[in-house]
Specification:
Layout (H helix, E strand, L loop, with lengths): L3 H4 L16 E4 L9 H10 L6 E2 H8 L3 H13 L3 E2 L11 H14 L1
Antiparallel strand pairs: 1-2, 1-3
Length: 109
């Protein structure tokens, strides 16, 4: 059994605090030369997945602690091997509209 801190090189915090367990990640194109085994395993899972894969799903698939996978994912993002889907904030509806829709759905039930 390999301890999580060994897999992360002794680091206990991800380099990108905005990346969370529910964050989606996509494999970027490019060579994976020089990556460590755990990094390659994460990258293989994300390749070919349309729309991205959640960090929590990666952790579950690899049977690794989520905190460890967060650090590995951030490493891959820092090296350009992973990215996040573009978030089109201006295309999202206002929160008041969403609350009104939810209120309407609840009254129909």
């Amino acid at each position: 059994m390999v301890r999580p801190f060994v897999r992360t090189g002794g680091r206990v915090r991800p380099s990108r605090p905005e990346v969370r367990l529910e964050s989606l990640v996509l494999a970027a194109t490019g060579p994976a030369d020089g990556l460590l085994l755990d990094h390659r395993r994460v990258l293989v899972l994300t390749q070919g997945v349309r729309g991205g894969l959640a960090v929590a799903d990666i952790a579950a698939s690899l049977a690794l602690p989520p905190s460890t996978v967060l650090i590995l994912v951030c490493d891959l993002m820092d090296s350009g091997h992973l990215s996040t889907p573009v978030n089109a904030r201006e295309d999202q509806p206002e929160i008041d509209i969403l609350r009104e829709v939810l209120r309407g759905l609840r009254t129909k039930v």
